């Protein structure tokens, strides 16, 4: 009789959950990175729009919100113009990355600032 019978199955039962967790974590980090990039892009687009000639910070926030509306990987976005002055427009995007690991929360906060065109 071979004393190693069934050891392959046992090894698989031990290693498969570990590999699955590592794979899910890698995919989740990729989704967080994409959502972070999308939030940064929305903030940048909003700051550019809000700082253009005869525009307002509110127009920049509206532009950021409309751009994020088409991006499904960013959940619950909140766009703010807090920190804007008469000389600069600051757009801040706070959101959550889409996740499939229920026990983790991936919050995102990205800002962009631009000088108002005179």
TrEMBL record:
Identify the residues that the record assigns to the TadE-like domain, covering every copy: 6-47
**Which Pfam families does its entry note?**
TadE (PF07811)
Q: Where are the transmembrane segments?
A: 12-35
Sorted keywords for this record are: Membrane, Transmembrane, Transmembrane helix
Q: Specify the superkingdom.
A: Bacteria
Q: Does the keyword Membrane apply?
A: yes
Specify the protein name.
TadE/TadG family type IV pilus assembly protein
Native source organism of the sequence = Streptomyces cavernicola
